[in-house]
Amino acid sequence: MTTSTLLTGKTALVTGASRGIGRCIALCLAKQGAEVIVNYSTSKEKAEQVVAEIASNGGTSYSLKADVSNEAEVEELVKTILSKSNRIDILVNNAGITRDGLLMRMKTEDWQAVINLNLTGVFLCTRAVSRTMLKQKSGRIINVTSVVGIMGNAGQANYAAAKAGVLGITKSTAKEFASRGITVNAVAPGFITTDMTKDLNAESILSLIPLGSFGTPEQVAGAVRFLATDPAAAYITGQVLQVDGGMVMN
Q1: What's the Cα-to-Cα distance from 63 to each of 12, 31, 46, 133, rounded to whole Å?
Q2: What pTM value is reported for the model?
Q3: CA 49 to CA 52: how far, in whole Å?
Q4: N or C: which end of the chain has fewer CB within 10 A?
Q5: CA angle 184, 238, 23 (to 5 degrees)
Q6: Where are the beta strands (DSSP E) in the chain?
Q7: In the prediction, which pLDDT does 203 show?
Q8: What's phi and psi for 143, nearest 5 deg?
């Protein structure tokens, strides 16, 4: 991996970065020269593997454990980053889970678990880093949502509600923070080849995708990289970049 200098001097926090899309985002931002904090909740070994891969390619990174749905843990996470790195320039709210099921059979705890991590986690992390970014008068916040939050999906009422909420908080915070040089945007992946999609009926889904294939985590990471980069994306805020093969066209 050849390291670029587009994000040299920047510190990036990527939540849920131990695997899948989060892992690719962490690697991608590190490749552009950013110092990357690999957040994880339970997968310490996998997080350390991401850190090691970044280091082996000349990048700078470290991992920190935190459940981003827990207010106290988020506050401690940001406090630790500031003590080690002195700043936070990029926040990628990527951490998420699914607890699928038809709404009439959905357990309340499955509803709440998804809302807590996928939506409240975005709120908690954004609020925590915003204090620093507002003082810096600069920052890039990129929220990983989903096309499911735009179009809905049977059996995913909790996930769709959370991801739709992420769209709302993206647009609202973009308006709140713009005057201080902070942009807030969202990336909405479609069906991406990860552990979360490996058991899906590929044939039925592919018929809905004009480009005729699942996306890759690297393609989502590329969209995040673009939104994090100056000056290319400096004049973009409150927007949703869909990485879905044409599945949803607004």
Answers
A1: 12, 17, 10, 21
A2: 0.95
A3: 5
A4: C
A5: 45
A6: 11-14, 35-40, 61-65, 90-93, 139-144, 182-189, 240-243
A7: 76
A8: -100, 125
The pLDDT score that the predictor gives to residue 250 is 79
Please, is 195 exposed, middle or buried when counting C-beta atoms within 10 Å of its C-beta (0-12, 13-18, 19+)? exposed
Q: How many residues are present in the chain?
A: 250
Pinpoint the alpha helices (H) of 42-70.
44-56
| pLDDT confidence of residue 204 | 77
Q: Which amino acid is at 218?
A: E
Those residues whose C-beta lies under 8 Å from the C-beta of residue 217, and which sit 6 or more positions away, are: 20, 21, 23, 24, 25, 192, 193, 194
CA distance to 6, 20, 225, per residue, from 197 (Å): 32, 11, 23
- Among residues 40, 62, 159, 235, the one annotated as catalytic is 159
Residues 114, 101 contacting (CB under 8 angstroms) = no
Q: Which residues of the chain have pLDDT under 70?
A: 1-3, 196-201
Q: Which amino acid, 82?
A: L
CA-wise closest residue to 141 among 149, 150, 151, 133: 133
Question: From the CB of residue 243, how many other CB atoms can be counted at a distance below 10 Å?
Answer: 21
| Residue 163 CA: distances (Å) to CA of 17, 140, 150, 196 | 18, 19, 8, 15
Within 8 A by CB and 6+ apart from 113, the residues are: 97, 99
